[in-house]
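User: I'm putting together a teaching handout on how multi-component assemblies are represented. Below are the sequence lines for each component of a complex, exactly as they appear in our records. Could you produce the 3D structure of the whole assembly as structure tokens, so the students can see both representations side by side? Please keep the chain order the same as the input.
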Amino acid sequence: MLYLLPALLGALTLFTGCNAFELATATGNEVCKQYNASHVAFDYAFRGTDWVTNPKGAWKCGGSHQSPVDYMTSDYQYVPVNCSASVQLGAPNVSSAGVLNLPQWQIEVLGSFKGNGLAVPVCNGTDVGCLNSPGVQPKYVYATIANYHFHTPSEHTLDGEYLALESHLVTLVSQKDVPACPAAGCLVVWGAWYRISNSQTNNTFLDQIEPYINGSGAGCTALPTDKTINLVDAFPRDRTYVTYSGSLTTPPCTEGVLWVSFQSPLQVSSQQLLAISNAMNNVRDCLHTPQGAACASTGFQADSRMLQDLNGRQLHKFSPPSGYQPS
Ligand SMILES: [Zn+2]
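Assistant: Of course. Below is the structure of the complete assembly, with chains in the same order as your input.
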């Protein structure tokens, strides 16, 4: 998704170690009234396979560097990422936030996010993520948050397995910091998987936003001004991630997106998954919704795009060294 909220970049910081991983506490405020819908119309009736030929606009969905892709659990094919060139999740703050239900298929957490902390290595002034610059000492720049949203089932897969839920934190690296980026910025998407918890323990991050998800249809719910969203549990404690150059998974399927996919799934309870799926009109609990038969007729839907071929792209993997201690 492309919501280009104001980029509020801070001063640059050089990261020298592997332990600069802090997470955020966010303060909520109303953001819904600021939301200016600019969506292109598309759906998941064909899991995105029809987007290639869709005549609406200059979509790139037929490109050769598309997302999502499958990740293998075996390591033999990955290019290792060293600490000196790993991404850093710091402490972004959210000054205002709202939870938006888009018609039929999507939930997004929008906000006037600000602050620093999502640090991305850049090599040779142009290589965001340093995927093509082995041995080069990176400069770090901050990415700012555009939105946070979900897909059910997951889009990226693990050894061909679809997980219950995948979250995408969409961020931007400013052209001001990296002149090689387009005017709108370079996209970096931070992905996390959710697997259903055996113990049915609620995920504490999802607990924070679930009250604001409108289960009965589209709309936008502004968080109270005194509401805080804490992002500590939005990413796994195990910071192992796979990174590669891909695309947006929705039209216009823009390429040149740096993906950072954390490999250790988070836990979600069945109740939370149902609440999110219901709100996105995917797997509907029609027994407990007022729509009744009309609800049931919608059947199973998904909001995840079909897997795309790697087409020769390399996958890179960061495995935290022993002693790595995210805060
Ligand atoms: Zn997404």
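A couple of points students might notice: Residues 1-31, 33-39 have pLDDT under 50 and may be disordered. The two ends are 29 Å apart (CA to CA).
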